[in-house]
Write a structure and sequence with these properties.
Helix content: 25-40%
Number of helices: 11
CATH class: Alpha Beta
Largest sheet: 8 strands, parallel, barrel
Radius of gyration: 21 Å
Oligomer: single chain
Bound molecules: beta-D-mannopyranose
Shape: globular
Number of domains: 1
């Protein structure tokens, strides 16, 4: 028997170089994803079982009553650490604008993305894309999805928009935390056509059919990945709140097209009164994602102006931990701390120094489940 084993080993050794070792288990939908993008996928899946990363939209760009001041962050100034996840928006790239729809200059956004990544954080990008038929904003619900699919009258315009997006994403480079060597492409969790179960965007329910939505999604993946050679993206599908898994999956593009299953919740997350519904939604998304080898996430959340001083622990954290499965989301990202202008006076979702929920935000940050940036392991390298 032993001789047989030795013989087999000898034959195997004679066959030449050892075969390339592929990582076991689920991988990103882009087989040519950069090493760091693949590592991010593997590590977020793993980490989600133990921790929830805290994220904030536009964190480094501005906060309540300040804008564009190097090093600043309302989250850091209240919790003591930058957020673990940085959300940004690409809205405006499509028309070659120098700033996005919320006034964030793309040039500076590129630098902030590099800064957060270099500290070990996660970068996610949404895209409030303008209506490609009318040129109106993302909330112009004139039917457009059909027109930009291959063969449609606005198809070329759409591919031009994707070309601009591809250029931007390929320009996102930075050194890695605590690692020698040059810059790498920053992995980005890309979340286009978000809140698709809602009816307020042109790609949402009632304005694009499920079939149009899926075709648009798949075309966009193929175009960016296979035609433009963009390989630093993880693809995040997200709905708004949903009442059943059937509703959640109604527009889902398919397992071959999605890396992250997320949803945005500004509704059942508001008060403890709806905790059971919130926990149920988290559980559904975790179960759907885990069954597919994907990453579950609460891709947007928050309560505008955080008027409840204990919202962070008694509502958000209590809701996340209410269910042993539902707590396995990879991250929860709160929306932006808009600043200036009458309409945005109370449009903030993270605290700032002096705000009523600061003490509770610190308690939330100290909970062992929740990770801010200074608690992150290396997400861009796969531990053996
Ligand atoms: C919305 C609001 C808007 C903003 C948009 C895109 O929720 O914050 O003011 O323009 O997101 O960031």
């Amino acid at each position: 028997m032993l001789r047989l084993i030795f013989a087999a080993l000898f034959v195997a050794a004679c066959r030449g170089a050892a075969p390339r070792v592929e990582p076991a288990g689920p991988a990103p939908i882009d087989h040519d994803a950069t090493a760091e993008t693949r590592a991010l996928f593997v590590n977020l899946r793993r980490l989600a079982r133990e921790h929830v990363l805290f994220g904030h939209q536009d964190d480094l760009a501005y906060g309540v009553l300040w804008s564009g001041e190097p090093g600043r962050s309302d989250v850091k100034e209240t919790a003591g650490s930058y957020p673990a996840v940085y959300g940004w928006d690409a809205g405006g790239l499509e028309r070659d604008a120098s700033a996005n729809l919320d006034g964030v200059a793309f040039e500076r956004q590129r630098a902030w993305i590099a800064e957060g990544f270099a500290r070990g954080g996660v970068v996610t990008l949404s895209w409030h894309m303008r209506n490609p038929v009318t040129g109106g904003n993302a909330w112009d619900t004139t039917a457009a999805a059909g027109a930009i699919l291959p063969g449609g009258p606005q198809h070329e315009r759409y591919t031009q928009w994707l070309d601009r997006f591809a250029d931007y994403v390929k320009s996102l480079r930075a050194p890695m935390r605590q690692r020698a060597g040059g810059d790498v492409l920053v992995p980005v969790v890309f979340r286009p056509f978000h809140e698709t179960s809602g009816g307020w965007f042109w790609w949402g329910a009632r304005h694009a059919t499920p079939d149009e939505y899926r075709r648009l999604w798949r075309f966009t993946v193929e175009y960016l990945r296979d035609r433009k050679g963009v390989h630093n993206l993880l693809w995040a599908y997200s709905t708004d709140v949903f009442d059943s898994t059937a509703q959640y999956l109604a527009r889902y593009p398919g397992d071959a097209w999605v890396d992250v299953l997320g949803f945005d919740d500004y509704q059942s997350v508001r008060t403890p009164a709806t905790r059971a519904v919130f926990a149920r939604r988290l559980r559904d998304v975790v179960e759907l994602a885990e069954a597919r080898g994907k990453i579950p996430a609460l891709t947007e959340t928050g309560v505008e102006a955080v008027p409840d001083s204990t919202w962070w622990t008694r509502t958000l954290l209590a809701g996340i931990t209410a269910d042993a499965v539902g707590r396995r989301i990879a991250w929860a990202l709160v929306w932006r701390n808009a600043t200036f202008g009458r309409e945005h006076r109370y449009h903030f979702f993270a605290p700032y120094p002096g705000q009523v929920s600061v003490a509770d935000f610190v308690r939330f940050r100290r909970d062992s489940l929740i990770f801010f940036e200074d608690e992150l392991p290396d997400l861009y390298h796969v531990a053996p």
